[in-house]
Amino acid sequence: MYARSKPFFVGLPVGEAVAAGFWLLLNMTLALLGHSYYAVQVMPG
Prior knowledge:
Blueprint: H1 2-32
């Protein structure tokens, strides 16, 4: 069971890194095109 589930658990941090890289590139592209940036507040406070 360990060997069969290992790709899934390795894929979790890899997928997180790919998603973070995608949003980073998207935000950098939009900033270079002159779009304004505003922070989205997720947690209250």
